[in-house]
Amino acid sequence: PEDAAAPLGANAVAELEALATRHLVQPWESLEHLGQEARTLLTGAEGVYVRDARGNRLIDGPAGMWCMQVGYGRRAIAEAMAEQAMSMAYNSPWYSTSPVAAELAARIAEMTPGDLDHVFFTTGGSTAVDSALRFVQFFNNYLGRPEKKIILSRGGAYHGSTYLSASCSGKERDKVYLDFAKDLVVHLSAPNPYRRPEGMSVEGFCDFLIEEMEAKILELGPERVAAFIAEPILASGGVLMPPPGYHRRAQALCRKYDILTISDEVVTAFGRLGHWFASEAVFGITPDIVTFAKGVTSGYVPLGGFAISRAVVEQVAGPENKGSVYSNGYTYSGHPVSCAAALANIRIIEQEGLLEHVREIAPYFQARLRELEALPLVGEVRGLGLMACVDCVADKQSKNPLALDKEVGGRIDAHCQELGLVVRPIYNMCVMSPPLIIEKPEIDRLVEILRQGIERTQDDLEREGLW
Ligand code: PMP
């Protein structure tokens, strides 16, 4: 029901906001502003909407953090979790497993491309990436080639917040005050066709990226390069879509030099691009490892993991491989409540034909958003499936992102939240990745509010003499 979440009284809201500002440390917390401002206090959610503590209903533009696939308020998922919690809330993965973990592993093995038949469960996306990278490390060390451990990643990538996954992330701004495994990770250029070198065609840019990758492999020595990790579409980097053919050519290079490929599908799997997994269906590649999280449970409860190729596992498995132990695991690996939620979530996606729905409605979503390119502040709108990014620029000619101190994405989000839409601001960009159940009227409303938010921001910038 729409009114399930009654607004809180003004005093209660003020009190809760004060508690949050005083005690909560949130992701990417600005300590400079600690204690000054609470994040939006949400108290309810239904379908594609969230509701703030003051009773305002907002379209959830980024689907939480790219995770709320089937929409909020799904009783079937809540009941599956409750039933599992009552029958067996937990089992130790050290000596046991559960029917739901077994069934989910089998389902995911079926959904993933090629021979990716073995599934390892973690607690989220960062731990999925970390565990996949740890497997690669273990694999090469066990096979007696300990020098083969460099991971190739890309600028603009985001792979998580554990030490190793964060080391693979490619955003410079996040690296100022933290240390990283610099000896293990080498970054290639961001595959961002919009900001490719001037005068270069998109095809030429693809050649450039692949040539750069091969040159780097040869410079490092193929015997030292263990893996290439790539999001099919760089999500938090601003929905960067590599040029056509890039993934296939990158995979061919990896095969040539005996480098394992990891497709980080934490965002792109479970329907975001209209398929269970996008690597093969959309990009024509069969990686050795695929990571997943977020959409596997529609964010109802944390879960992540990776699926890995049988051919890779077989090289280190079996009685002839004495002492072969993959020493990596979590108390909550294959948590039964998470697995039950995932199975219920997958049933909803199937029963409601949500993969087909995304394939049908995505062209409309993308076309409507592209209309915003007519606005002076908008340099490019790009995306695929139900993933899109509005990239704001100082002027369309130079494509220069607006100076960060103007916080254009944040300003647009603030206006949009007043108008009834949550935006995911990233520097000068606004990301949109709504729940998969979104319909045309809600897309129309989303685009209309975003347009107004951008126009109001433009007015503000002009008034303040910033633009
Ligand atoms: N990989 C990708 C591609 C992601 O977008 C994210 C999170 N946004 C992660 C990994 C990390 O996932 P989590 O936040 O669940 O640890």
Structural commentary:
The chain is an alpha/beta fold. It folds into two domains: 10-70 and 353-463, Aspartate Aminotransferase, domain 1; 76-351, Type I PLP-dependent aspartate aminotransferase-like (Major domain) (Aspartate Aminotransferase, domain 2, 3-Layer(aba) Sandwich), CATH 3.40.640. Helix content is 38%, strand content 15%. The protein has 14 helices and 15 strands. A seven-stranded mixed β-sheet has the order 4-10-9-8-7-5-6, sandwiched between helices. Strands 1-2-3-13 form a four-stranded mixed β-sheet. α3 packs antiparallel against α11 (336-351), α12 runs parallel beside α14 and α13 packs across α14 (440-463). The mean pLDDT is 96. Residues 65, 124-126, 129, 158-160, 231, 235-236, 264, 266-267, 293, 304 line the site of 4'-deoxy-4'-aminopyridoxal-5'-phosphate. 4'-deoxy-4'-aminopyridoxal-5'-phosphate binds at residues 65, 124-126, 129, 158-160, 231, 235-236, 264, 266-267, 293, 304.
Given the helix and strand composition, which structural class is it? Answer: alpha/beta
Q: What is the CA-atom radius of gyration, in angstroms? A: 22 Å
- Which topology of the largest domain does CATH recognise? Aspartate Aminotransferase, domain 2
Q: How would the global form be characterised? A: globular
What is the CA-CA span between the terminal residues?
44 Å
What is the overall number of helices? 14
Give the SSE string: HEEEHHHEHEHEHEHEHEEHHHEEHEEEH
Share of residues in helices:
25-40%
CATH homologous superfamily placement of the largest domain? Type I PLP-dependent aspartate aminotransferase-like (Major domain)
Strand content: 15-25%
Number of domains: 2
CATH class of the largest domain, anyone?
Answer: Alpha Beta
How is the main sheet built? 7 strands, mixed
